[in-house]
Amino acid sequence: MSGWVAFSPDGTLLASGDGDGTVRLWDPVTRRPIATLQTGSGPSGGVSAVAFSPDGTLLASGDSDGTVRLWNPATRRPVAILHATSARSGGAVVAFSPDGKRLAAGGGDNMVRLWNPATGRLVATLHASAYYGARAVAFSHNGKLLASAGGDGTVRLWNPATGRALATLQTGTGPNTGVYGVAFSPDGKLLAAGCGDGTVRLWNPATRRPIATLHVVSVRFGTDAVAFTPDGKLLVTGSGDGTVRAWNPATRQPVGAPIQTSALNAIFVVVFSPDGTLLASGGNDGIVRVWQASLFAHTYAQLCADVGPPTPHEWNHYAPGESQPKVCG
Fold this sequence. Notes:
The chain has helices spanning 301-307, 312-318; strands spanning 2-7, 14-18, 22-26, 33-38, 47-52, 59-63, 67-72, 77-83, 93-96, 103-106, 111-116, 121-127, 134-139, 146-150, 154-159, 164-170, 179-184, 191-195, 199-204, 209-215, 223-228, 235-239, 243-248, 253-260, 267-272, 278-283, 288-292. The protein is mainly beta. It contains two helices and 27 strands. It has a four-stranded antiparallel β-sheet, with no helix packed on it. Strands 5-6-7-8 form a four-stranded antiparallel β-sheet, with no helix packed on it.
């Protein structure tokens, strides 16, 4: 199962974390495999998260045995093993700070730990959730804020330099309000949280005030993943019903039609390539999907990119007597 994906900073690698305890590296353009990294956690373990350092010299994988492994993606060799949480607490989620000097790792023990990835030294331990674990972590783009997603339905904000708690944002009090994903907009003016009740909550991280609630899917499925485009003009969500949706964060309105991956595929993560041209998703059906990001602005874009427009002969065969519309660029 390829549930977690991340692009390298230069966009030449795509890493996926798999349920068989491996991390696979791919060429995102050709979609060809490049290497397979063995974590040693075995088929009963599994990789729960992957993230590249900002300079691309490190790849972190969070494993379901509670460890975080650091790799050199150029040599494909392991560099260090950090004990982020206990094996009984479930897998670790990971994120690097923008300057690469901190690695945040959250897990099922409700804690987020901050490490110095260069030395492997534990810097701080943050109490990120009352129950059900810390399910996601994200740094703001200026590195001054760290957000953690809690199974208790909260998003907590921290000063990563000092480890001081700054705010606790409440998403609701119902039984399905656990938070599964968090993301800051590139300009730092928005914080998005994907919630178990099917919504995405938007806040102003500076004032801590709520801005909007996007009703993405029903409470039956939940919204697990959120990601902004590098220019901040789109917010993409991934949900438990297998859909990927795009939103205009300024108007709070959907953009284009939802993309259905599989009715049985819960989307765990969505991530954009650094240049914003590609979108990758990972879920529980074991497939990493990569799209042209322009698909969300033009519903025919992916089809046109793959096979081109129908030829006049094809159009006359399937739609005789009808004028042929222009559907590709």
